[in-house]
Write a structure and sequence with these properties.
With 210 residues, the chain is of the alpha+beta class. It has a domain of 119 residues: Sandwich (Jelly Rolls), CATH 2.60.120. The protein has a seven-stranded antiparallel β-sheet with strand order 3-4-5-9-8-7-6, with helices on both faces. It has a three-stranded antiparallel β-sheet with strand order 1-2-10, with no helix packed on it. Strand 7 and strand 8 form a beta hairpin.
């Protein structure tokens, strides 16, 4: 079991580095659930003639520095994830699917990475911080990524990996909810700090339905 955890997180870190180098996000290996759409993009269109943009067009174009609109989250019933999650709820996007996957309850949009995506899971156990840390470290070393620990405690591990100027965020956070040990974690890493924080906020929404 220990080797599996270490190897899987080394692989996940390597996959995040590949995405940072221009790859496309997809569901984790072994999951039959939502994957990122990998539609091929045609590159045969002729180059457009250069022209100075009009003032109206320039003013209508969003600024590259403008913050993305925060995704709206709604209450999702986790009963589909099996008996352990009957009567439990957590927040996710309206178009996200709830499923039993990866040993717990997963809330994921069809595309699991990139703008408008969401991919979060809950498991009824404590995070295996030591093994997670070893796996993340090995993956970053092999992929030559810059690893930074954001939180490193007995019940939570949050980290980022940077490659080619792009940073990916990960977390596994232990919580006590209704007297039960729960791990809330990112299934797919996030490529912005805002998205990472949004998913952390969603962790705190886990509750027994009243």
């Amino acid at each position: 079991m220990k080797l599996t955890i270490i190897q899987s997180f080394a692989a996940l870190t390597l996959a995040s580095l590949a995405i940072a180098c221009g790859g496309e996000g997809s569901a984790p290996a072994g999951s039959s659930k939502p994957a990122s759409s990998a539609a091929a993009k045609s590159s045969g269109a002729p180059a457009a003639k250069s022209a100075a943009p009009s003032a109206a067009a320039a003013s209508a174009a969003p600024s590259a520095d403008a913050p993305a609109e925060k995704m709206e989250l709604v209450e999702k019933d986790l009963s589909k994830a099996g008996d352990k999650f009957k009567g439990w709820v957590a927040k996710g996007p309206a178009d996200a699917e709830v499923m039993e996957d990866l040993g717990g309850a997963r809330i994921a949009t069809k595309k699991v990475m990139g703008p408008g995506s969401f991919d979060l899971a809950f498991r009824m156990d404590k995070p295996k911080v030591k093994d997670l840390k070893e796996g993340a470290t090995k993956g970053a070393e092999i992929g030559k990524g810059k690893l930074e620990w954001i939180t490193d405690s007995a019940d939570a591990l949050e980290w980022s990996v940077e490659a080619n100027g792009k940073k990916m965020y990960f977390f596994h956070i232990g919580m006590k909810v209704e007297g039960k040990d729960v791990t809330c974690y990112l299934v797919s890493p996030r490529d912005s700090e805002a998205d990472y924080k949004l998913h952390k906020e969603a962790c705190q929404s886990l509750a027994k339905k009243k």
